[in-house]
Design the sequence.
């Protein structure tokens, strides 16, 4: 008998609706039209949904390229057999130039120093994208320093500038009216600097999820949204109206044991929680090391046998209790839903994260790569 791969033996999994990702890319295409390049942002292992599975779906649904925040995601995408433009946001050093060449990746260059280092590391001419800092004060060339970078590129024989992009500072409520316009003016200045230096850049993009939805006029020749691909569109008053479907449809596990606590004599010891006499509990094989909140908020729940039961804290590294008082028939092996549907009952992602004190995007960013993903197509 052949043993199942270790990741399939763990009875905890995410359910990802790849049909939703495909729908969201097609919806994005409908909104931006045929003339705007879509670089699907697959940062953080496709926002936790698994870059090797999400990448081909995005390309088949009409994306022109992909963008990742770390080279290991790029490696996984290529290992899955996905071809096409693959942009590396600033995240690696020129010491990985041989891999960049072998896998045909497009690194980002923001400074003269970086450009010289990539140029020295490459064995032949390669496309690079330039990044400009429009107000985020993170990676990217300051607008005033872009002319120096553009002129330096003219002297470096192995770098072929093929694109220019920026990323808006858009931290929710912190963005005030006019702040996009102020940042977009920096992008426009960067485009003028490129034109003045005679550098033609086929792809120019600055819009990710919020700007794509709120500022259609800022599309330029490309857009690189992430959140909306996974149904995490976050605009209260969008100028563009799309229907985006949520990609994460389940965070599920299985009951591994149950027991009745019986009579307890705590003596001088403090118990981890205050058990009711004769209380029945079940044990789940996941904890805060797998993404559950630590400490557990009041009201946190799961579904078992179609009924809502309370999680009982404290949450441990890889174990959590549930109160089986209202589901005394629950049996080891039963599916337990932390997020998703079971029969007529449902715990939505929005409900869970509101209780856990985080937002939906943060949940996606914290999805664990050691937890298997099961791919479904709810429309299919
Ligand atoms: C450079 C860049 N482009 C695009 C994105 C995608 O942003 P969003 O998920 O808000 O669409 C990010 C996200 O961090 C980013 O850093």
Sequence:
């Amino acid at each position: 008998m052949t043993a199942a791969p270790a990741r399939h033996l763990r009875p905890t999994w995410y359910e990802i609706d790849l049909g939703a990702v495909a729908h969201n890319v097609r919806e994005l295409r409908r909104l931006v039209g045929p003339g705007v390049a879509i670089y699907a942002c697959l940062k953080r292992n496709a926002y936790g949904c698994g870059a090797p599975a999400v990448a081909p779906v995005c390309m088949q649904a009409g994306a022109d390229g992909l963008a990742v925040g770390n080279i290991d995601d790029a490696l996984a995408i290529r290992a899955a057999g996905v071809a096409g433009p693959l942009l590396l946001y600033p995240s690696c050093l020129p010491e990985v130039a041989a891999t960049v060449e072998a896998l045909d990746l497009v690194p980002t260059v923001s400074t003269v120093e970086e450009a010289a280092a990539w140029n020295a590391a490459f064995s032949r001419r390669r496309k690079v994208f330039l990044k400009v800092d429009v107000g985020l004060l993170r990676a990217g060339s300051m607008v005033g320093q872009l002319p120096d970078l553009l002129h330096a590129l003219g002297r470096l024989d192995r770098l072929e500038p093929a694109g220019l992009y920026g990323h808006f500072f858009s931290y929710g409520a912190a963005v005030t009216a006019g702040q996009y316009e102020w940042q977009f003016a920096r992008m426009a200045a960067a485009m003028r600097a490129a034109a003045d230096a005679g550098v033609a850049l086929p792809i120019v993009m600055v819009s990710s999820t919020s700007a794509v939805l709120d500022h259609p006029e800022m599309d330029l020749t490309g857009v690189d949204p992430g959140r909306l691909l996974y149904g995490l569109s976050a605009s209260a008053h969008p100028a563009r109206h799309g229907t985006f479907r949520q990609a994460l449809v389940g965070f599920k596990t299985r009951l591994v044991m149950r027991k009745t606590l019986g009579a307890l004599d705590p003596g001088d010891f403090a118990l981890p929680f205050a058990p009711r006499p004769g209380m029945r509990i079940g044990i789940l094989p996941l904890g805060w090391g797998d993404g559950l909140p630590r400490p557990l908020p009041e009201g946190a729940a799961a579904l078992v046998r179609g009924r809502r039961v309370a999680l009982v804290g404290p949450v441990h590294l890889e174990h959590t209790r549930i109160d089986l008082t209202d589901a005394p028939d629950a049996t080891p092996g039963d599916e337990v839903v932390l997020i998703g549907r079971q029969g007529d009952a449902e715990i939505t992602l929005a409900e869970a994260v509101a209780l856990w004190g985080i937002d939906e995007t943060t949940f996606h960013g914290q999805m664990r790569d050691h937890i298997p993903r099961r791919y479904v197509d709810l429309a299919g």
Observations:
- Residues 41, 43, 89, 167, 208-209, 224-227 surround pyridoxal-5'-phosphate (CB under 6 Å).
- The chain has two domains: 35-230, 248-376.
